[in-house]
Write a structure and sequence with these properties.
By secondary structure, this protein is mostly helical. It has one domain. About 70% of the residues lie in helices and about 0% in strands. It has 8 helices and no strands. The chain is rod-shaped. The mean pLDDT is about 80.
């Protein structure tokens, strides 16, 4: 073994060629080590990028589904607010208390929020891993979508303010005790069953039931708040449509650039 090592050591000779050979072999070993380590890191980053892309696709699909539901609910509420406005402004509510209480049974001006699925985006930003998304188009689209959604959420607290202001005057029109018993019937029905029970479509009130007409000042204030909530919900729904468009475009871009199949 020693003889073989000595022979290998003497092979290049003892001159400058010998030292050049040793330097070259050392340089080659170090270079190969760096190359292999760099290749390993690049592969690890590629795997992490692919994982982030897959979870981002899941997040965007969740967002699109949530936005579609939210748009549908907001559209329904705007239409019901229209009905409520017409009912009060024409004084029909005096003769149609069942319709009035039916519209107030579940507050159609109550708070609706969009909760984006941002788990992947938060990981990318907090860990400084946005660089892992090497496709610049996709990276720009993700950042643009995240910024747009967060800017739109600044308007959601307006719903809380309007709801609180409106509730103060609603109590002058709607008897909270009657409303409590009307909503309580569905709650009791739910508690008595292990399955989801759909609430009744129509209000149940005695035929002789009547409401007390509002004074002109209260009526004007309630109509003002109904109009403001309708405008706010319409604007928020318009934002939801834009958010949905960005989510769908970003999702399609990711699927195209990363060659992902599926829906």
């Amino acid at each position: 073994m020693e003889t073989h090592a000595q022979e290998l050591h003497k092979t290049p000779g003892h001159g400058w060629k010998h030292y050049f050979f040793e330097f070259f072999m050392l340089f080659l070993a170090v270079s190969l080590g760096f190359f292999v380590e760099n290749l390993r890191e690049r592969y690890a980053e590629y795997e992490r990028e692919q994982q982030y892309v897959r979870t981002m696709v899941e997040d965007l699909r969740s967002d699109t589904a949530q936005l579609k539901r939210l748009m549908s609910v907001r559209k329904d509420r705007v239409l019901r607010l229209d009905t409520l406005f017409e009912l009060i402004s024409s004084d029909r509510y005096i003769k149609e208390p069942k319709t009035l209480y039916g519209l107030f049974e579940w507050p159609h001006w109550d708070i609706l929020r969009f909760f984006p699925s941002d788990r992947t985006m938060q990981q990318l930003k907090n860990a400084g891993n946005l660089r892992l998304i090497r496709n610049q188009q996709v990276s720009d689209a993700l950042i643009g979508y995240d910024v747009y959604v967060r800017n739109r959420k600044e308007y959601e607290p307006l719903q809380v303010d309007l709801a609180n202001q409106m509730n103060e005057y609603v109590e002058k029109l709607i008897d909270p005790v009657i409303l409590f018993h009307l909503t309580g019937r569905d709650i009791a029905q739910q508690l008595s069953s292990d399955t989801v029970i759909r609430g009744q479509d129509k209000i149940v009130l005695p035929d002789e039931f009547r409401v007390t007409p509002m004074d002109a000042g209260t009526k004007k204030i309630i109509l003002k708040y109904i109009g403001q909530v309708k405008i706010l919900f319409s604007e928020l729904r318009r934002d939801n449509i834009r958010e949905l468009g960005r989510a769908v475009n970003t999702l399609n871009l990711i699927k195209r650039e990363y060659h992902l199949g599926g829906d």
